[in-house]
Amino acid sequence: MNDLCADIGYKSINHYEEQLCGDHIDVVNNDDNSAVIVLADGLGSGVKASILSTLTSKIISTLMAAGLSIEDCVSTVAATLPVCSQRGVAYSTFTIIHLVDNEYAEIIQYDNPQVFILRDGKNYSYPREELNIDDKRIYKAKIKLQEGDLFVAMSDGCPHAGIGLSYNFGWKLKDIIDFMETIEPAGYNAKTLATILINECERLYGGKPGDDASACVIRVRKRNPMNILFGPPSDRNDCGKMMSLFFSKAGKHIICGGTTASIAAKFLGKEVKATLSFESNGVPPISVIDGVDLVTEGVITVNKVLEYAKDFLSENKEYEHWGFSRDGASLISKLLFEEATDINFFVGRAINPAHQNPELPINFNIKMNLVQELSECLRQMGKHIKVSYF
After folding, report:
1. Which domains are assigned to the chain?
2. Whole-number Å distance between alpha carbons of 348 and 29
3. Angle between helical axes of 190-204 and 173-183 (0-180°, round to 10)
4. Secondary structure E strands in 42-125
5. Predicted model pTM
6. How far is residue 41's CA from residue 157's CA, in Å, rounded to a whole number?
7. Residues 239/231, Cβ–Cβ less than 8 Å
8. Which residues contact residue 365 at a Cβ distance below 8 angstroms, ignoring those fewer than 6 apart?
9. If 154 and its partner were Cys, which of 5, 21, 158, 237 is the partner (CB 3.0–4.6 Å)?
10. Tens-place pLDDT, residues 79-128
């Protein structure tokens, strides 16, 4: 058992004028330390390709997570999916990355661009063995993980980017590796790195992708706990217990809510210092308490964080805002989305009298729903979440 974990992020773009993406990426977490990631590229584009890639990734990820061998997985896929009447080809191509106990990774590929690894910021050459399964040439590798390793898996829409436009023969794998080596030192998380790579592919296609293009990035890092306190407890007598548990946890500490901040400051024997910084996105200003990493307003700020979290899991278009802004919601987003691996929520059930005004769109249920929705979004990002109510 080690203290490593995997930050997994991916992004896709559709073939020009297609409503559905012919690629599909599936992530199945077996437990806290193991996961199966499958990137499948369906034959052609559009609806048929989307169905083929989705079925392929679902079948493989489910069987691999259940412990079946790669031979059984490939045979099952070959027997399950239909054969194209024109090309005589059955299912989609695929890449499997199986992370085991966060100690090593198994890479299994059929006809997709080779997965490359950046180790210490440079391309890491690893040995592969060739297998023949049901007349399919399969490549397999096993790599022991190190902190800082960066795995990049792609569909062939990435190296095909720019054919006849920016490049005569597309964006070669070596050039893609050089591109990723350039941006890797910036320390972006996996989702942002995948987004940057796919955005560059779309640019090379001239904004009209000639193929579906997908990238999945896995960054190996050490665990980084984070703690967030949101609202006072329902019973005032539990304030000391709640604060003791919150501040005893390792990692950074975030406090959301004015009343909550006052209780925390009293517990620490400090004072709450207001700031005058107010940005145009409508998020209230942050405060400062000595010994606390971040103090923000409550429901309005957390609701904005939830908006950013939902966007982060889909198009990731808001990154350019929260990634560079200094308001409370942006700062929380950076801490939770980019830095944290394990997040502890300490949620008070006290009802705020100020929120009982029927003209205000805030009530107790909304507050609880915010916590539930944000927790679920963070789980989908691969974070380990624990929620404690007081």
Report:
1. 4-222 (3.60.40.10), 225-389 (no CATH)
2. 30
3. 130
4. 93-100, 104-110, 116-119, 122-124
5. 0.86
6. 9
7. no
8. none
9. 158
10. 777 666 665 555 688 999 999 999 999 999 988 999 999 999 999 999 99
